[in-house]
User: What shape does this take?
Amino acid sequence: MNEFLLPIAIIVILILLNGVYVAAEFAVAAAQHTRMAQMAASGSAAAQRILNILRSAPLINRYISTAQIGITIATLGLGMFGEGTIAHWLEAPLHQISWINETIVHTVAVVLAVAIITYLHVVVGEMVPKSLALQAPERSAISLNSIMTISERVFLPMTNVLNWVGDMLLRLAGFP
Assistant: This one.
């Protein structure tokens, strides 16, 4: 049983981390300027930071890019770790079916693992956080302010490069 605890914990953490970034992205996109201004006026430093982001196209672009990078990293980690781990767990019971050969066992285990990971990722890591953030965007944005502030600092070089490349591609395609 102990052999399952750490891998399950890693999978859960990656799904939740994905959810944090999804919620942050939707929260800042749906946050109302007026409500955030009221919260900032009442002394909330986090609300003031979010309000500053909402008032600046470059800052909102960087914030959303940071969330997207976080989502991508968590998703890739989940796919790389989760698929192999769950497929490995499924192979042992599938081997008990004597008429299934090794290649089919592995293929079935991988397909089932991808289906399980995808389902958990979409429901728990995407849909639930999105819905929660859209129900209370200002509160969600403020709650996630600290992790997004840290993430923006950590991902800043990557965010700047990716945004620059994206801007260059848009210019090459004829967009301002």
User: Anything to note?
Assistant: The helical segments are 2-30, 33-41, 45-54, 57-95, 102-135, 137-143, 145-172. Residues 2-172 form one domain. The radius of gyration is 20 Å.
